[in-house]
Write a structure and sequence with these properties.
2 strands; two-stranded antiparallel ribbon; mainly alpha; single chain
C-alpha cells in the first residue's frame, strides 16, 4: 500500500510515518519512484504498540 494509505490506517500524519520509517520502526520498500509499505508491516507495527491505559471514569458530556 502507499504511504498515504498506511498513514490513514494508522491515523497518523505524514511527518510521523516518515519518522517511524527513518527510525526503522516501519519498513518500507521502493517500487520505482513510489514508497510502499506492506499490509503485514502495518499490522506488525500496530500489534507492537502498547495497550492504552485508561484511568478513572471517562464520560462525554453533552455540550
Amino acid at each position: 500500500m502507499s504511504v498515504k494509505e498506511a498513514r490513514a490506517l494508522l491515523g497518523i500524519g505524514n511527518s510521523k510515518i516518515y519518522e517511524l520509517m527513518n527510525a526503522g520502526q516501519i519498513k518500507a520498500v521502493k517500487l520505482g519512484a513510489r514508497t510502499m509499505i506492506s499490509e503485514a508491516e502495518v499490522a506488525r507495527y500496530k500489534a507492537s504498540l502498547p495497550a492504552a491505559e485508561w484511568r478513572g471514569n471517562y464520560s462525554r458530556k453533552a455540550a
